[in-house]
Write a structure and sequence with these properties.
Elements: E1 6-11, H1 31-38, E2 45-50, E3 71-74, E4 77-80, E5 106-110, H2 133-140, E6 144-152, H3 155-165, E7 169-179, H4 182-194, E8 198-200
Parallel strand pairs: 1-2, 1-6, 2-5, 6-7, 7-8
Antiparallel strand pairs: 3-4
Helix pairs in contact: 3-4
EC number: 3.5.1.19
GO molecular function: metal ion binding; nicotinamidase activity
Domain Isochorismatase-like: 7-203
Length: 205
Amino acid sequence: MTGENNLLLVVDLQPDFMPGGALPVPEGDAVLPVINALMPRFGNIAATQDWHPADHASFASQHPGKAPFDTAMLSYGEQVLWPDHCVQGTPGAALHPALNADRIQMVIRKGFRRAIDSYSAFRENDRRTGTGLHGYLRERGITRVFIAGLARGYCTDFSAEDAAELGYEVVLVEDACRGITPEATAAGTARLRARGVRFITSTSI
């Protein structure tokens, strides 16, 4: 098991992000067995869960004339518009049934404020509204965060960037993540390396 100052952060393992879901990440389901195998090696595990109201401002359906993956200006700046996904209380928003959720000690629901999208586990997209995860980790004495889940370029990478900015040592487990597009993943990798994030595979833990 890793040290007690380490945390595994499992990002958005929900059916809507899996093949066949509302906003599928290619091979998103491939991370499930990798993450389940990682969990017994950690004494501290937290997860995030996208949890949107049905009329969330980041949904293209709420912007007449816009299509998914267009952009729009919201109160905090430019926002990618998504297909409706992870709507509160729907099966697609649940933690994936194949995930060993019994080992998860804290679940952070994000994106539940209608007017603000939320990629990071630590801060919503206005970059001011916190989720409470930072306070929880400080209370637990966590100093190193291992990131796994979906999707590279967006929620995993924003979470890793914010963790690094907040002073944690950050490790991204590459084979426990998948990206929406190769371009988004490459851009995320450049941002994370600039922040000092370390990249490893699950076999080295």
